[in-house]
Amino acid sequence: IPAARVHVVASVQLFTAICLLIFAYCSARAIYNSYFHPLSKYPGPKLAAISCLWWVYASLSGRYPWIIERVIKKYGNVVRIGPNELVFPTPQAAKDIYQAQEKDMELFVQVGYDALDTGDGGISGETNPVRHREIAKKLAPAFSNRSLKTKEAVIHQYLDLFVHRIAEHGGPDGVELNRWTNWLGLDMAAALTYRADMGHLTESCYFRDGVRSSGSRCMHSQELCSNRAL
Length: 230
What we know:
Strand order of the largest sheet: 1-2
Order of helices and strands: HHHHEEHHHHH
Structural class: mainly alpha
Strand content: under 5%
Helix content: 40-55%
Number of strands: 2
Number of helices: 9
Largest sheet: 2 strands, antiparallel
Radius of gyration: 27 Å
Shape: elongated
């Protein structure tokens, strides 16, 4: 038998063996994820239980929120959307996950590329349960019912101003909503965080030079503002 033919046969056999191993691994993994995984008792799409392909498709489809809403309506308040992923639509779930934990801290696990710890000490990506509890304790007072009620007036103030300015500048062509919602977010964030009025909504402009003083506003002389309908 020529050496070249022997080499081809050996290569085919090796390729076949690798394919069989991959198939066996994927099959074993699918069976484990479907029937023996700790999350196997939770309902959800079958493909989501055995691989991340379902989640990848939902994320890249541009309709992720609506897809998640549909599976929640179909499967209930706890839905498995990935081999290691559950989605919870209830307010209590947010409290259990993000508030400071005193018990069962070892059960707190976050996975996924969008939940990995980036090293900046953020609460969303902190995988260490002890460190997570420390961060959550510092943030908890800002999100208490009492704290949120004190901010309600400011939120209503800027939402009312936003609606008024949209109605004022609106017309047959409408307004550029992306720009106006950016202004709303900037003004509201500055007011809630620093008690400063940056004036984006009032002056219909971006304050590009930053906050120079507590009373700084957008300056017409810098041609940042426009009186025409946006």
